[in-house]
Amino acid sequence: MPPQGRMRAPAKPKNAKGTFRRLVSYLAPHKGKLIAVTACIIFSTAASATGTFLLKDVVNSYIAPLVGAAAPDLMPFARFLLLMMGMYLAGAISTLVYNRLMMIVSTGTLNRMRKDMFLHMEDLPIRYFDQRTHGEIMSRYTNDTDTMREFLSQTFPQAVSSFCSVLFSFCYMVSLNIWLTLLVLALMPVILGITGIIGKRSGANFVAQQKAVGELNGFVEETIEGQRVVQVFCHEQKSIDAFEKKNENVRVAGTRANIFASILGPIMNNLGHVNYVIIALVGAIMIINGYTNTGVLISFLTFTRQFSMPISNLAQQFNVIMMALAGAERIFEMLDEPVEEDNGYVTLVRAKKDDKGNIVECQERTGMWAWKHPHKADGSVTYTEWKGDVVFEDVTFGYVPEKTVLHNISLYAKPGQKIAFVGSTGAGKTTITNLINRFYDIQGGKIRYDGINIEKIKKDDLRRSLGMVLQDTHLFTGTVKENIRYGRLDATDEDIVRAAKIANADFFISHLPEGYDTMLTGDGSNLSQGQRQLLAIARAAVADPPVLILDEATSSIDTRTEALIEKGMDQLMKGRTVFVIAHRLSTVRNSQAIMVLENGVIIERGNHEQLLAQKGKYYQLYTGMFELS
Fold this sequence. Notes:
Elements: H1 16-27, H2 31-53, H3 55-66, H4 75-122, H5 126-130, H6 134-141, H7 143-176, H8 178-225, H9 227-232, H10 236-288, H11 294-335, E1 347-353, E2 359-361, E3 369-374, E4 381-385, E5 390-397, E6 406-413, E7 418-423, H12 429-436, E8 444-449, E9 452-453, H13 459-464, E10 466-469, E11 478-479, H14 480-485, H15 493-502, H16 506-510, E12 519-520, H17 529-543, E13 547-551, H18 559-573, E14 577-581, E15 593-598, E16 601-606, H19 608-614, H20 617-623
Parallel strand pairs: 7-14, 7-15, 10-13, 13-14
Antiparallel strand pairs: 1-2, 1-3, 3-4, 5-6, 5-8, 8-9, 11-12, 15-16
Helix pairs in contact: 1-11, 2-4, 2-7, 3-11, 4-7, 6-7, 7-8, 7-11, 8-10, 8-11, 10-11, 15-17
């Protein structure tokens, strides 16, 4: 199989601008809500800034005249305070509204993104999944979408709010006192420089921490799945040592990341205090010399904090934004993967024979199917009965162009024949069956199905005509009945029971707590491996295809169970073309043809007796002189 990739942690995006523009296209359906969010953020920050600006009037126009007054009139002051309270309350309501709207926008956007990912994933070729680990693909649904959620629901509105706060604060500061404003601007490079240095180191260490956590999670998942192997070979201490090493990497990276993240706040607060003291000192001197008044200075000092803290927040949010764009880029990389091409035009249709014996298309359940073959040259349509005649003509194939796996493979399988492939691991047995399904396309030669080049057959129709039982079974969450019905969704309950009896699965199913309605979870973890394999065989039986591919289908079934289902399997294979891959040579003895493969080449072919008479590789395998690896 092709080499698999390694799980990557999000880093800086390769194309931040392009990724951002594409992300904006996902936000387009929520344009109205985003406009409302922006309006609420502007109103909220404007209300807060305006309230701070009015502090000068509170001091100069209301508090100062009350000092020393014999009979102070508090009503104007109370009305002004109520006005400010109403302004702050409106700002708080706006903040609540835009936060709720952003949650709706973020969840809706991620819902659409995950849906697009899943729909696209279903159309990707098998090659894509063979070249990547499941963990790497899953990380796009979990880690990357989680960074997107944090960005959309928290970082994005905070960044917009911080920008608006800086803008409003700067405008009011200029209107209050231009000289104090210039002093604040002169002190800002120091604050921004320190924030940038610490933020950069913090972001780098958070990326390292995320990567270390990913490696730790992968190791734990692998250990859990292989716990029996660990205990059988007494490698508990080795696993513990490996875990401690990876766990220590997480601790070190996490400590460094959180140290920088935790010191940024106190440093910024202290720098803010220094800035505050400097402004207060200069402002006091200006009051003494008559260049400003107390109310203006109080408002300005408040603005000093409202101006510096949002700038620091923007610097801290930069790393989160870059992480989110990196996650979005990985999601878009998956969405940009080319889907499986299908240029086929021959389809599988229900058919019957008319009075003249010609095959014609029909809608009734006649039990007969045919290939509908439209001819582009003259526009005519011909029908070929679906029988299961498979022919390989000088087929050459390699998973990568520079490395050929199969060399000039030629074979034929007539309807009703059982063709077996034997050989060492890596000889090319499973590859041949993958080519019949067109999971991969060949580089040379032809494969014909009922005389039709399979490249002309639509892939859905081709695969619908084949039944396959793999060595590694997979059961879905659902009842036993639903898992068998997966082979043919329109199968009746009677069809399901009949298929289970053919596979000899009916006996153990009937003894389950709820029989065919027993719920299976965790890939059928409540069943034995052999029972799961029997259900996979029943699933193939209910599909009732003319061609069966059995890839080590009985490898997980004990010898006694194998003997019990042999008659059922023979009944299942009767009249069908069957391709069998098996290490147990006892299961292929009755095959019409046995192909012995080595390094992608058929070195021997014939039936059981003929191959024994040749006294070649098959003879060595059968007599135990040579063992399959």
